[in-house]
Design goal:
Blueprint lengths: L6 E9 L7 H22 L5 E5 L3 E6 L5 H13 L2 E4 L7 E4 L2 E9 L13 H16 L3 E5 L2 H18 L4 H13 L3 H8 L3 H11 L2 H16 L3
Parallel strand pairs: 6-7
Antiparallel strand pairs: 1-3, 1-6, 2-3, 4-5
Helix pairs in contact: 1-2, 2-5, 4-8, 5-7, 6-7
Length: 229
């Protein structure tokens, strides 16, 4: 019988429409992604998580606490969507754009752990990798696949709904969600960080960000993964 401590979370993702970014922009986005990985490791994984960026615009993470995998994915997407890139085209007006990622969450067993994340092996890696391919084909940006089929049915529905919410986040909404989930700040604290009023924070988080629905999903995922044998 496989031990519960061998169950891990794996995030496999890639930047959406990264080919349209200029070299300086992709460097900015990757730099932000690395900083987000470092913050996640510090706040939630006791510096035990492993992150790796490969092929320039793809990434993979090994998370020792699988129940926090969805939270990590949400923070990564919120952070990326908060980046505003200013593309200057000669003789044309400034075009503002923001970035996002497609993230496949795999939860399962690990059979081989390498110092290089992408060389590690196990069910969690297989499920995450296969799911990312599926997300590409279905034009979706977040999904969950575990070793428990009955959980996958529930997570499939919830992921669809969460994706619809996230895809409507503006950069300013995403920024509020990012700090709220990453640092667990109150609305009053966020108001100081974002330099806006508390009612404006409430509007971005609750009305525009549907943060209550996102939190319910994260809490449900956390609870179900924790109780698995």
């Amino acid at each position: 019988m496989k031990e519960k401590e061998n169950i891990i979370g794996v995030l496999t993702g890639d930047l959406v429409k990264s080919g349209k970014l200029q070299s300086g922009e992709i460097i900015e986005v990757i730099g932000f992604l690395k900083k987000t990985f470092e913050a996640l490791n510090k706040h939630f994984f006791k510096d035990r998580a492993k992150f790796e960026i490969y092929r320039g615009d793809s990434f993979q993470a090994i998370l020792p606490y699988p129940e926090k995998s969805l939270l990590a994915a949400m923070i990564i997407r919120a952070g990326l969507r908060s980046i505003i890139l200013r593309n200057r085209i000669k003789n044309k007006s400034v075009n503002y754009a923001y970035t996002d990622a497609r993230i496949a969450i795999g939860v399962g067993y690990v059979s081989y752990m390498s110092n290089n994340v992408v060389e590690s092996q196990g069910e969690a890696f297989v499920k995450s990798g296969q799911l990312l391919d599926k997300l590409h084909k279905e034009h979706e940006r977040i999904g969950i696949e575990t070793v428990w089929d009955y959980l996958n049915e529930e997570f499939y529905v919830e992921s669809k709904l969460a994706d619809a919410i996230i895809n409507r986040w503006t950069p300013f909404t995403a920024e509020a969600v990012y700090y709220y989930l990453l640092q667990n700040k109150t609305q009053a604290q966020l108001a100081k960080i974002l330099k806006i009023s508390q009612p404006a924070v409430h509007k971005r988080l609750v009305i525009q960000g549907n943060i209550k629905s996102i939190k319910v999903f994260i809490e449900r995922f956390t609870e179900l993964i924790k109780i698995q044998d």
